[in-house]
Write a structure and sequence with these properties.
Elements: E1 6-10, H1 11-24, E2 29-33, H2 35-40, H3 43-49, E3 55-58, H4 61-69, E4 76-78, H5 85-93, E5 97-100, H6 106-109, E6 120-125, E7 133-134, H7 135-146, E8 156-158, H8 171-183, E9 190-191, H9 195-200, E10 208-209, E11 235-247, E12 252-253, E13 259-260, E14 265-270, E15 287-290, E16 293-298, E17 306-309, E18 320-324, H10 330-337, H11 341-346, E19 353-360, E20 363-368
Parallel strand pairs: 1-19, 2-3, 2-10, 3-4, 4-5, 5-6, 6-7, 6-8, 8-9
Antiparallel strand pairs: 1-11, 11-14, 11-18, 12-13, 14-17, 15-16, 15-18, 16-17, 19-20
């Protein structure tokens, strides 16, 4: 008997969220960020569903190749660039665009031929101090890139916002001003805004926006949830109750007996745990839905199971349990567990069964994937 732990990927929600991004940044083109297996949702199926995106952004050459293997022809931007001749050759062969962010990448470009130029983006470090050339050094690098015959002109300019998830933090404004000051008078495309920039910093929208987390239905801002911005959850993780137990007052639950029943009460045991990607450190009180009603986690999370307080819920073995997604924003679980939605979405493991919900001729169908956490696209 297989486990009932499932992740449903709603492609209609994905497309809805892309439209929400366009509504927030109507004068910008959209570079959809699908790195890290599309934030755990399955890169091939997400890329195909986002066929209306103007471009895609990934972290590395392997992810970029997966976009082409999925049949997509849009521009693909390698956010971490390339660090070897083989990767550069692959970028040229597949017309990938490459972010240049470190001096070690520059010698690779000297071998490029004018007949087959590479599209590049110059990463300007405006204060995050992760990737990119400091503002004071970036103009010299821009001139160096402009002089290379194998680099397509004009060069794109890109930066990344460090604190945009906090609208009260003025550092985003500082970064935007630094970038615009550097870019003044230079030709080429510009990209500043991540999801938080799209949602909270209109001055960052520029020619290209790079939404990530908000495409998947989660809020990019602190103390908010996706529905606050009209977003719909793309991933719903669910399972079923495999046992219902009656406790007496004083009974302890789970490893270490850290949670004690305050009265005679029922608890349910649900078939999900940290082996499936549910957060190990989620505390008692973390919300979930049982039969669509809010209940609370009790006791420690195990590898394969969790316990849930069933008071007020006439639940039975086999009843559905939603861990996050429709009706329960992933942000709530992340905050309870002291983490971020990104980690939960990316951390769903391969033993969870993925299925894809797609609209076909005004009806819905489900296509189950047997390929771990790589959901398949629905046929049209």
């Amino acid at each position: 008997m297989s486990r009932d732990c499932c992740a449903l990927i709603d492609l209609g929600a994905l497309r809805h969220n892309l439209a929400a991004v366009r509504a927030l940044a109507p004068n910008s083109r959209v570079m959809a960020v699908i790195k890290a297996n599309a934030y755990g949702h399955g890169l091939p199926v997400v890329a195909r569903a986002l066929v209306d995106a103007d471009a895609f952004a990934v972290a590395c050459i392997e992810e970029a190749l997966a976009v082409r293997e999925a049949g997509l022809t849009q521009p693909v931007v390698l956010l971490e660039g390339v660090s070897s001749a083989d990767a550069l050759d692959a970028a040229l062969a597949h017309r990938f665009e490459v972010v240049i962010h470190d001096p070690s990448q520059l010698p690779l470009l000297a071998r490029l031929q004018e007949a087959d130029p590479l599209t590049v983006w110059l990463k300007v470090d405006t204060g995050m101090n992760r990737l990119g050339f400091p503002v004071a050094a970036a103009r010299a690098v821009w001139r160096q890139l402009s002089a290379l015959p194998g680099v397509r002109q004009p060069i794109g300019l890109i930066t990344h916002l460090a604190n945009a998830d906090d609208p009260a933090d003025d550092f985003s404004r500082v970064q935007i001003e630094r970038f615009n000051s550097f870019a003044a008078g230079l030709p080429g495309a510009r990209s500043i805004a991540n999801s938080a920039g799209v949602a909270a910093w209109p001055a960052s929208h520029a020619g290209w926006v790079r939404p990530g987390i908000m495409l998947y239905g989660a809020s990019p801002l602190l103390e908010s949830v996706g529905p606050d911005f009209g977003l719909r959850p793309v991933m719903t993780v669910s399972t079923r109750l495999i046992a219902v137990k009656q406790l007496q007052a004083g009974d302890r639950v789970g490893y270490g007996g850290s949670w004690v029943a305050p009265e005679a009460m029922p608890i349910g045991i649900a078939a999900i745990g940290y082996g499936d990607g549910y957060p190990r450190h989620a505390p008692s009180g973390t919300p979930m839905l049982v039969n669509g009603r809010r209940q609370q986690l009790v006791g420690r999370v195990s590898m394969d199971m969790i316990a849930v307080d069933l008071r007020g819920n006439d639940a039975a073995v086999g009843d559905p349990v939603t861990l996050w997604g429709r009706g329960l924003p992933v942000e709530e679980i992340a905050r309870a567990a002291g983490t971020i939605p990104y980690e939960l979405l990316c951390g769903v493991t391969q033993r969870v069964k993925f299925s894809v919900e797609e609209e076909v001729a005004s009806s819905q169908s489900l296509v189950a994937s047997e390929n771990g956490n790589q959901p398949l696209a629905t046929s049209h």
